[in-house]
Design brief:
The complex is a heterodimer. Chain A contains 17 helices and 10 strands. Chain A is an alpha/beta fold. Chain B has 12 helices and no strands. The chains are: A alpha/beta, B mainly alpha.
Amino acid sequence: MMKFDLIRGTALVAALVAGVATVRPAAAQELVFLSTQLRPVDEAQKVRDVLLKGAPKTVYVVDEPSPFTVRMKAETESGKRTISLVGALHGELQPLAPLGALDTIDDVAAKLGDRGIPASLMELGKLGTGKQVYIPWMQATYVMVVNKKALAHLPAGANVETLTYKQLADWGKALAEKTGSRRIGFPAGPKGLFPRFLQGNLYPSYTGSMVTEFRSAEAETMWNDFKALWTTVNPNASSYDFMQEPLMGGEVWVAWDHIARVKDALQAAPNDYIVVAPPAGPKGRSYMPVIAGLAITKGAPDRAGAAAVIEHLTKPGTQVLTAAEVGFFPVVNATLPADLSPGVKLLAEGIAKTQTAKDAVVALLPVGLGDKGGEFNKVYLDTFQRIVLRNEPVRATLDAQAEVMRGIINGVKAPCWAPDKASDGPCPVK
Amino acid sequence: MNQRILPYLLVAPAVVFLGAFFIVPLVQTIVLSFDGGGTGNALGNYSRMVNDLNFGVSLRNTFMLVLVVVPLQLAMALAMGMMLQKIERGREMVLWIWTIPLGVSDLAAGLVWLALLQNTGYINSALFHLGLLDGPTPWLNSETPVTLFAAIVLAEVWRATAVVLIVIVAGLQTIPKEFGEAAEIFGAKPWRKFTRITLPLLKPSIQSALILRTVLAFEVFAAVYALGGRNFPVLVGEAYTWQNENQNYGVAAAYAVLIMVISLAATLVWLKALRTNPETQA
């Protein structure tokens, strides 16, 4: 009896342990494609049913950016790989490279020579390592969406297609006075992309630089101007994550955001809006292209399959479908069809206006920051919080934050990227 | 031998589980928080945490919330518990309704209150239609810190008072009726009965409830995140931001350790402040 109990007890523990051991992830031989993009259920379904049609059999799964990073890190550290192909933004793939989670794919890149992917985009995909780490998949950018009701209040002499930041401030003021509420919106909420506005639009437009001139006199002027502009921005901006919601609610009439985050508003009422390039400053009309890339994991269970899926997704036909179905635009040489849905058409026009503006300046996503991309964003956001929201003196704040920026850049030894001039060694913060 | 080993075998799964999923990560977190974050100084993560823009604000916000919410919840739970004592029929039903919020997740509760309180929310709309507001009035942004704080307090009180209530109700049931009856015979008024008999006998329950509730209050996050976002930083929220947005796990770990130390300290305070003499225990 005594012995029996002991056996039973041991068996119980053994069963528990065995239970843990037999819970395995999906069969290891499947071609699993993990993406942080095209996450909403309907978009993911379109990827499975439309975009991956004709590609090798793929299990398309999605995850939010932070669990994505954790999962990639965990799989790398445990040496147990379930994912072959990953699709994510440039900034999300960047920290995975120093972890050793991604394979180099010069061989895949070589096969895609005829796709017409611009060399600058392919260069981004090397993440500053000299070897191809990801293949550009689709692109987007940040635009301004304007409710047509706001056009009536444009300040004299201002053209909505060629706005300056000064005119935007005047417009905001006029809107607030005439309509009784502040109608300009920025996605400055916890999940909003506001740091990208500061890095990619505002800073280069005023200083011609993202990093080097961080604490320059021009930057000081910029913050003073932006502080004035902020008084005309809806006070709920610090809760906005996706501008399509306040746009659809009518709370905001003029909004800056990523095209994917205003798409619903444009699709719902394409006749109510126009999409224009973001404003210009003294140094031009800066914009930031957003790139999502495809990468193959190191030790991928199905590397050949993953490479085949990359080839499929970068075919001009698939790229055009991607634009039509989910509103992300081609990275390859492909002509968009004329029968795009009106909302997507507005987005395409907005992107074209932004890229072809006479005074356009390209600001690239940060390159070579490794896992410091988040802290790099924090420098801009903290500077904004201190100067604009907490009213701290501009000069002192810029000096202090420049010190933090220097620490980050020097720590990862990242050379300058556009629009800053190329540097030997870490990008200097003057 | 059977009698000696069996208990250990039976607790083994729980011990293994807690060891693997609680103690190991705890130790890892503590180690991680002292890794210096590349500065070469073991306290590097802590100095980054303390010197961060949001540290002081989040510390102040968290303590303000605890200091307002916990006493309020204790008072309400005591009042509700006493009222419940007087109810003859349907007592279970009332208790059941009062504890519904316990079944709602933190974030869901936060989102429910957000739907009620945001400027396009139900309360705003209702007040507007009654003619009490001129238009959608924002209450939850950085320009309205007072209403934002009030909203968070409201959501937290709604969400978590039941935790205190349940412990108090359980405690009230252990107090023998005879004491109260004896007091009544000697002419004690209800308030005197409450302060001289109920409260002292309830002290162990109050202590448990306060420890539980205070520790949870220091960990407040989801409801605050839903209602306040960046406008109302709290300690756990900062840990989350450092982990997920800034991707600096070291500073996030430093926050986690700080929150643990504060929680342990709060527990000690309650253990000491509300110590019950074993002889006076009912």
